[in-house]
Amino acid sequence: MNSDAARESGQAAYNLACELFPINRSITGPGVRQTLAILTREMPELTTHAVPSGTQAFDWVVPDEWEVREAYIEDPEGNRIIDFKINNLHLMGYSEPVNCELPLDELQAHLYSLPDQPDAIPYVTSYYSRRWGFCLSHHQRLSLKPGQYRVRIDATLAPGSLNYGEVLIAGDSVEELFLSTYICHPSMANNELSGPVVATEIVKWLISRDRLPYSFRVVFIPETIGSICYLSHNLGVMKERVRAGFNITCVGDDRAYSFLPSRDGNTLADRAALHALQHVAGEFERYSWWDRGSDERQYCAPDIDLPVASIMRSKYGAYPEYHTSLDNLDLISPAGLAGAIRVVQGAILAAEQDRHFKINVLGEPQLGKRGLYPTISTKNSGETVRLMMNVISQLDGRTSLLEVSNRVGAAIWDIYPIVLKLVEAGLVDDLSLTVQPSNI
Amino acid sequence: MNSDAARESGQAAYNLACELFPINRSITGPGVRQTLAILTREMPELTTHAVPSGTQAFDWVVPDEWEVREAYIEDPEGNRIIDFKINNLHLMGYSEPVNCELPLDELQAHLYSLPDQPDAIPYVTSYYSRRWGFCLSHHQRLSLKPGQYRVRIDATLAPGSLNYGEVLIAGDSVEELFLSTYICHPSMANNELSGPVVATEIVKWLISRDRLPYSFRVVFIPETIGSICYLSHNLGVMKERVRAGFNITCVGDDRAYSFLPSRDGNTLADRAALHALQHVAGEFERYSWWDRGSDERQYCAPDIDLPVASIMRSKYGAYPEYHTSLDNLDLISPAGLAGAIRVVQGAILAAEQDRHFKINVLGEPQLGKRGLYPTISTKNSGETVRLMMNVISQLDGRTSLLEVSNRVGAAIWDIYPIVLKLVEAGLVDDLSLTVQPSNI
Amino acid sequence: MNSDAARESGQAAYNLACELFPINRSITGPGVRQTLAILTREMPELTTHAVPSGTQAFDWVVPDEWEVREAYIEDPEGNRIIDFKINNLHLMGYSEPVNCELPLDELQAHLYSLPDQPDAIPYVTSYYSRRWGFCLSHHQRLSLKPGQYRVRIDATLAPGSLNYGEVLIAGDSVEELFLSTYICHPSMANNELSGPVVATEIVKWLISRDRLPYSFRVVFIPETIGSICYLSHNLGVMKERVRAGFNITCVGDDRAYSFLPSRDGNTLADRAALHALQHVAGEFERYSWWDRGSDERQYCAPDIDLPVASIMRSKYGAYPEYHTSLDNLDLISPAGLAGAIRVVQGAILAAEQDRHFKINVLGEPQLGKRGLYPTISTKNSGETVRLMMNVISQLDGRTSLLEVSNRVGAAIWDIYPIVLKLVEAGLVDDLSLTVQPSNI
């Protein structure tokens, strides 16, 4: 959580994003596997899983795998004017193979561009309905002349698998904190590469810590179908164990911090994320459940009801470059990623430190005889121990430390050491510890 | 609920108000019976009841019946300057008979006028203390010259009965929605004739509907003593059956919409009325319990505690013509009545449709394979199905549909068809139906 | 509660403050005993208690007793420039004895002054660490010339006792209302003498009342160590009996009224104090728990959790003269004290009258036949009985009278007589009375 470490971590995240950027990811296919291979190099703890096409997952079926070898359009003069090799956004995601010539007016029905952002190549997919299409800048589209165009998509849509990665880290308790991020978008930076690279840095930080009070579950999955597959295999254990989870998406730029709640809106995940955003970021955008659009849609669906909130910088859909070629490596920065890393660390600490403590003397303790209080009383001397006394006044055993911290208006990671000092002085009992034996 | 039907219904209500206007109603007497006879012609389902004078009803006793044959004042020259036949408001309600001559200064003690509204004849009653009196415009009062006046009230105050009407309509459930309106004021239009004529149109609409999920209880009663009598006979069954009720009063003008809550303030009646006012009227005045003044005083009294809220246009006491001769047929309009009809219909639909539904798949359903979702994903395509997805995300079986509608910010009668479509697609269970068999 | 009585009471309180002002009080010592002796003269009901030095009280130990005979500083010319006899604030509270000469620069380490308030002598203590020191105006300090100063403190710090006073008044119920005020500050007026003199007037008022529904416990104690000692002896019985308590401090000036909540924030004490401040004072400062600084720190500590709120005029720490020689008899006034007396009386009445009542007829009662309602109904006549009807509408047996009063927007002492009239008329049951037999 210190700023030097955060700066280094942000730079490492940025470097990893640069390496992952060119890969053609989709919800299935070799791009996902390449991505997972690089992530495994970074995190040997990562295990990868493959779910065969056709597998039923809740209301969904894992689709065929999509593999692209080549895709381009040649103009009437034979110039290759659009080429998947140059920018993988040119090809509509899950395009079926095609190899034909057709006149411009027929080709138009397969072209996608953004008149309002004429320089941007849009990102378009058609996962569950067979189509083919190309995306291009509106400027380029306007420059197309009538004539016969040759279109070639050398792609396969065939049974294969959906791949995802999972890091499980054992802590003192089997109860878990959960992180989810996605790896299913081609060359775009804030949405999505910022998510997996920040999550990777968080995993490294977790591994480096002396001791983890909770176990961790971190998943790198294709959005929607990936979270649905993951839940269909792990829902039981997750409902038992997950105390708080965070969806990590769009965490790379430095224009804003953003929060999107769980459906419940007041889970530990919500409270921890809000606390971290308030004390690390200060100002942030607070979105509502109605603004959702990522895997919280699955994690918080009725009867799944996991405590998962989203931590973001500029939210998907809320910045102009979203889902276009303008969401590139210039949009994100080491500093932007570092800020997100610090907020996620803060949310994790908030969730971990949100324990119950209880003062064990009646009335205020005499801090003076324990060297915890100035022994001379002057007009202003009370101020210096006010925070400690305020914290003590709230340690009634019923109020969790996150609520205590919010009441006294300080970050829980600044309050926690004060409480530990009181525990050492024998004035305060850690009820979590007291309770643990009976849990075994 | 379509606007043509509402316009026709508002015109029919206005025509009925014109027919009922001249009748001299009070809390008892032939005027009430005449009114009920006309209402029976409109609604053959209406049954009428008579409660004998002297009957105890809770803390009250049904008073003697009041019948007026003739009432006038002649000035010293023998001109009939005030005559009940010209305007029944001239005679104080429940005036005892008198036949005498007296000088102007003695007569003054029996005259009522409004200095602030010098053109208006006030409406004054003395139900529970024997008095006599005449009401006149303050202009007329100032023109009276000294001298002997002849006063004649040919009226009877004698044992008879209190009359009221009741419509019971059987629906699928024995649980009831309840409407109450009053028929005890002489020639005044917004307060009160708008109430019974709107209630009559609602009854016709209910009868015309294919199927009613709830049964209905609609009463046309004298205010206060009438609701007390009605409750004293029906409280047990009403407490068992009434899920929501609406007091329909002052629903004829077109200057405002108004809401007055039940004492509890958060019953289904309150929520349904507020929802209807918000989505039909848009803007409306929101009164508090402390502004009450009609039969909610009885319906919501301690230990009666029925869920009854008031739906109004310009509320009694809140418009200058209230309880004067200026509250006449010019003050109300077919459009004003039609607006009230639509709000009451909306409140009834909101109460009926406020059921519990539950999505029966885990995670978001795949709408695409059921033809409920566009199959191509572009930058903006999500918007078109957002409302349906928002509704689905709330169908957890615990949140009733009215609350779901309020959360997504739409009228329940626009959400209900979406939910029925999901029920037909087998994605959503109607918990009300599931529960019903066990109720039988 | 009438204003003549309040004025007299305020004057009596002021006179008593003048008599008590010169005494050198501290948390122990003869000054406390002198003060208690004068209070016993005023209230023969007062009993005094002594707790020996060295007694353990929760986390604390009663300190040695401090007695001062003489304390002064002489300048290099032998002039007695600072003398405890002239103002007891000159001597740091609990200074140890000293008798020496030392140069000015060494003396400076033992001097306390306020650069921002150069005319004021600050009030400084060092109860739990052995030190000596003198307090003086910053003007005087700046005028000190280099040279040898003679310092003499003839004081004893030796085993003795901590003294406090207690008034127990038996009422109809063993349940208690509790008042606490402190007697441990030397010559300062708003903080603290206003507290014990207002409490004395309240005790006289309580004794003068015909009948007390609750018993009373009023304590005059040294702050912090005194309340800790008192609680360590009485906590069990107090937790059983105390329904509401008020800490009476800083109640002498007339610049503001102030409220500081219990830790819980919504006990009967909080509600009664807020009600009294609203209806007696109108405007007042509303402090939070984080602004606390008096014995509520002990009364509301975790597991002690007594319902104790603070009623103040200008709060300790919130006025410039606080804890200096400027907090003198000019700062407080008979009118200031009288205002506080009225608020405390109001809070006591609010707590006493906060009982449960229930209307025993269904529907609105017919007030007319009981002479409680005007028998003629005109356009405005309803207003005159509206308050009574509003109260009746809330007497459901579940809503306590303080909440009823807050809902109808009137002082409980104005509502209570209305309710008693309804009880006499047989319309309302006093549930507190009904319940009492079963308590015996």
UniProtKB/TrEMBL annotation, chains A, B, C:
Top-level lineage group: Bacteria
DUF4910 domain span: 14-353
GO molecular function, one term: aminopeptidase activity
Keyword Protease: yes
Keyword vocabulary terms for this entry: Aminopeptidase, Hydrolase, Protease
Residues of the UCP01524 winged helix-turn-helix domain: 360-429
InterPro entries: DUF2172, DUF4910, UCP015244, UCP01524_HTH, WH-like_DNA-bd_sf
Official protein name in the record: Aminopeptidase
